[in-house]
Design goal:
By secondary structure, the protein is mainly beta. About 10% of the residues lie in helices and about 30% in strands. It contains 1 helix and 4 strands; from the N terminus they run αββββ.
Length: about 110
């Protein structure tokens, strides 16, 4: 009779208390995997974009990879300045140019 109790405990894990998320199990031999990225240097800060001005549009030059020395226009979120290095996941898509006439009061 003692054996049946142990089998029940091993088969069904205890449910977490209500309102708490279950803990995720981590694999022992898991390695960190990064996506392939291409470095690009910021050549010029063009201006702010987005509905709240939270993104900054920059012109950057690709330093390595298939599109080496290509100049792209990208939107960047967060603090950025000239000569910073961006790591781009892709180098094919370019951001739309900023409109000079749009904005507050126009």
């Amino acid at each position: 009779m003692g054996e049946s109790k142990n089998k029940v405990k091993d088969m069904a894990p205890a449910a977490p208390p209500q309102g708490q998320k279950p803990q995720q199990q981590r694999s022992e031999g898991g390695a960190i995997r990064f996506t392939i990225a291409v470095p690009a240097r910021v050549e010029e800060v063009i201006g702010r974009t987005g509905t709240r001005g939270d993104a900054i549009q920059v012109r950057c030059r690709v330093l390595d990879g298939r599109d080496k020395d290509k100049i792209l226009r990208r939107n960047v979120k967060g603090p950025i300045q000239k000569d910073d290095i961006l790591m781009l996941r892709e180098t094919e898509i370019e951001a739309r140019p900023l409109d000079k006439g749009s904005g507050r009061g126009s």
